Amino acid sequence: MSVYLTDTHSLLWFTLNKHSSLSDKALRAFESAIRGESFIYIPVIVLWEVAILEQKQRIKLNNGFLNWAAQVLKTKSFGIAPLEPEIIAVGAGYNFNQDPFDEMIAAFASSMDLPLITRDNAITESGLVEIH
What we know:
Layout: E1 2-6, H1 8-15, H2 24-34, E2 38-43, H3 44-55, H4 64-73, E3 78-81, H5 85-92, H6 100-112, E4 116-117, H7 121-126
Parallel strand pairs: 1-2, 1-4, 2-3
Helix pairs in contact: 3-4, 5-6
């Protein structure tokens, strides 16, 4: 079974049916997870970023953050990747842009040795993680 880690925008694009924003490869990974053929970890920091984006009204989630998160996590092929001190240490050492969320998401992927589903240029160009 393939296992991946997702960044914030990839998860949002998939769950909000903005599939055209995803690469074909990323969309296949999400669809595979929905069918139970792969597993996608969601870093806890991604959930935090989504909550902040909604609170600042930069995104609109039907029925709010808590309901959106519950809906995503009821799919057995999605799970939360907890924030561990080792991941924090790795992320603190990254300095490829001014977005601590990006740096921590890359740290999750690197520390867990998982391909990251992302289209984020800063993460992709950092060369720190395998991109899916």
